[in-house]
């Protein structure tokens, strides 16, 4: 038996998390939930989309769904956001309790706003902007890897739907909400809040940052974009750890996705153009991106070390 600060006795079993008491590793519970959340998120998105089509009288049977899909992507995005909010966001809060001992869910997920958090929020937003040339080069290198033609066709089909959707008149605010704001909050709760923390408990910080980043990339089912997405995931995890808060990653995620929405609505040919050696930024811009990215990361590390001293 041990005692708490008030002198009350409690057993070691009482301060174990549900996962520990039942012999589950934190990383295993996290991966199980990730798979379940992905499936339920997709199912919910599909059900809501189909229900909205029926409500608005656009279809009378499932056979007509494909015919109207391209004309009603707004309803698909509503279904997608519903699934994200319910499962990636809200339900992840409940699943987090399986890992808690005596801490709060908000602390586990790093929902902390400290005196230095605004500085890290600013640095995180700058980081996702200056890293974009590197991301473009990674996307190009990713495109050179051998990938099944069916996966490439799926990617092209997705891009075509996005392009058609974002060319719609007056779609900017709708796009910022469903493509930038909802994923920025819900995906960060799941990945940088829950998955990253569970991995850290099992494998330590370095592996947690790298593996959670690659899991984030694979979650999006965009094999031709795996390297860019994984890199962004790693950067978001790193800034979460360095800042000791999830808020910088949420804002950085919003800036990244929101910037893509604004670029796609203003310059669709540039945003959706084919990636090739001819369309890549200059080597000098890539070099500048590497230097600035390293500088921002160094600043974050230096600030964290100074705070912890």
The backbone outline, from C-alpha atoms, is globular
Spans of at least 5 consecutive residues whose pLDDT stays below 50 are: none
Instruction: Compute the number of helices.
Output: 14
Q: How far apart are the termini?
A: 34 Å
Assembly state of the chains shown: single chain
Largest sheet: 2 strands, antiparallel
Spatial arrangement of strands, main beta sheet: 1-2
Reading the helices and strands in chain order gives EEHHHHHHHHHHHHHH
| Computed Rg | 21 Å
Classify the helix fraction into a percent range.
Answer: over 70%
Arithmetic mean pLDDT: 87
Give the total of beta strands: 2
What share of the residues does DSSP label as strand, in percent?
Answer: under 5%
| Structural category | mainly alpha
Number of domains: 1
Question: What topology does this entry show?
Answer:
Layout: E1 2-3, E2 9-10, H1 18-21, H2 26-55, H3 65-69, H4 73-96, H5 105-108, H6 117-130, H7 132-144, H8 149-166, H9 172-203, H10 205-219, H11 226-243, H12 247-266, H13 268-271, H14 283-308
Antiparallel strand pairs: 1-2
Summary, kept brief:
The chain is mainly alpha-helical and 309 residues long. It has 14 helices and two strands.
Describe the 3D structure.
There is one protein chain. By secondary structure, the chain is mostly helical. The chain has one domain (2-308). The chain has helices at residues 18-21, 26-55, 65-69, 73-96, 105-108, 117-130, 132-144, 149-166, 172-203, 205-219, 226-243, 247-266, 268-271, 283-308; strands at 2-3, 9-10. Strands 1-2 form a two-stranded antiparallel ribbon. The longest helix has 32 residues, at 172-203. It is globular. The two termini are 34 Å apart. The model has no long low-confidence stretch (mean pLDDT 87).
């Amino acid at each position: 038996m041990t005692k708490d600060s008030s002198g009350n006795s409690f057993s070691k079993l009482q301060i174990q998390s549900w996962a520990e008491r039942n012999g589950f590793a934190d990383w295993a519970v996290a991966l199980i939930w990730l798979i379940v959340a992905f499936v339920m998120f997709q199912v919910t998105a599909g059900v809501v989309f189909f229900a909205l089509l029926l409500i608005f009288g656009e279809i009378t049977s499932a056979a007509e769904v494909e015919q109207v899909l391209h004309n009603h992507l707004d309803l698909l995005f509503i279904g997608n956001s519903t699934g994200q909010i319910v499962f990636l966001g809200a339900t992840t809060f409940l699943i987090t309790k399986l890992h808690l001992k005596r801490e709060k869910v908000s602390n586990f997920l790093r929902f902390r706003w400290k005196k230095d958090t605004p500085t890290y929020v600013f640095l995180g937003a700058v980081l996702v902007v200056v890293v974009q040339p590197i991301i473009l080069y990674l996307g190009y290198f990713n495109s050179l890897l051998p990938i099944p033609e069916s996966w490439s066709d799926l990617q092209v089909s997705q891009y075509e739907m996005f392009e058609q959707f974002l060319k719609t008149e007056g779609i900017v605010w709708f796009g910022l909400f469903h493509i930038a704001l909802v994923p920025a909050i819900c995906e960060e709760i799941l990945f940088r809040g829950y998955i990253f923390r569970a991995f850290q408990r099992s494998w330590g910080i370095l592996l947690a940052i790298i593996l959670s980043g690659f899991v984030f990339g694979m979650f999006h089912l965009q094999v031709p974009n795996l390297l860019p997405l994984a890199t962004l995931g790693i950067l978001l995890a790193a800034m979460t750890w360095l800042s000791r808060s999830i808020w910088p990653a949420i804002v950085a995620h919003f800036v990244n996705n929101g910037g893509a929405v604004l670029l796609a609505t203003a310059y669709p040919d540039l945003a959706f153009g084919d990636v090739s050696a001819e369309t890549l930024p200059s080597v000098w811009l890539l070099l500048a991106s590497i230097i600035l990215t390293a500088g921002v990361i160094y600043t974050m590390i230096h600030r964290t070390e100074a705070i912890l001293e």
